């Protein structure tokens, strides 16, 4: 049993809804259900009865409720005291690469700000190259940026993965395919993010290993432009599954690659050897928790 499980328990008791409690607690419905299941396993009893009419507290839950309130209140008071010591006058700067907010949705920025209102949290956005430069110059402590990363310079944890694929017009012969290989793209005009993003290096490294040469017809800075160019010029776009959902176009079709190496990998990165500030450590832990919650949601998918 831990404090976070009790916080989830109290929120469900208050709202009598797992899904609404999950939204309030910045966690997925599956994540909060798993936490309550673990709490029930620890206590060896059932805490909630679910039915079409809603959620009801069991006798055990009613017994636990006042005790949980006292425990969480004491823990919150203790946390608030020590946060006040650490947070006063602190500034936390982080940089997110383009696409990270869409792909790795619901990054717990507001949750951090809510818990640590005295920390000035500055979030910057840029390319993968910008993120690495900002870490190198100590402009930011943390970055969410795409790999691959130089392990000699950075400590990096994989937090999210999305399969790359191609975006084509529904009139294109590829539109009949379920998956494509890198060899299928030989001789076809491609539309891709500029080299300040890691997309090209990932795609091209697989192409070189396969002994093929790709032709990039259009370089873009904005992923939305990829969709416009595929629609108007009949080029083949390189994108990911989440961006397809975000920029959905009925006249276009997304087809994933058959190679798992062709994936957009997002990392939580920091300079190797740099000791993170207290606030940076807390935000990093929130990002890890967010990653774990999303993995539970998508454990049956190819994507993390």
Features:
D-Maltodextrin-Binding Protein, domain 2, disordered C terminus, 304 residues, two-stranded antiparallel sheet, globular, 11 helices, 3 domains, single chain, Arc Repressor Mutant, subunit A
Description:
- This protein folds into three domains: 3-84, Arc Repressor Mutant, subunit A, CATH 1.10.10; 91-159 and 265-297, D-Maltodextrin-Binding Protein, domain 2 (3-Layer(aba) Sandwich); 162-264, D-Maltodextrin-Binding Protein, domain 2 (3-Layer(aba) Sandwich), CATH 3.40.190.290.
- It is built from eleven helices and eleven strands.
- The protein has helices spanning 3-15, 18-24, 29-43, 59-87, 100-103, 109-115, 128-136, 199-209, 223-233, 241-246, 278-297; strands at 48-51, 54-57, 91-97, 120-126, 142-146, 154-169, 189-193, 215-220, 236-240, 252-256, 263-271.
- The strands form two sheets. Strands 3, 4, 5, 6, 7, 8, 9, 10 and 11 form a nine-stranded mixed β-sheet that branches. Strands 1-2 form a two-stranded antiparallel sheet.
- Helix 1 crosses helix 2 (18-24) and helix 1 (3-15) crosses helix 3 (29-43).
- It is globular, with a radius of gyration of 23 Å.
Taking all Cα atoms into account, the compactness measure Rg is 23 Å
Distance from first to last alpha carbon? 27 Å
Question: What would you call the shape?
Answer: globular
Which residues sit in consecutive blocks of at least 5 with pLDDT less than 50?
A: 299-304
Quickly count the helices. Answer: 11
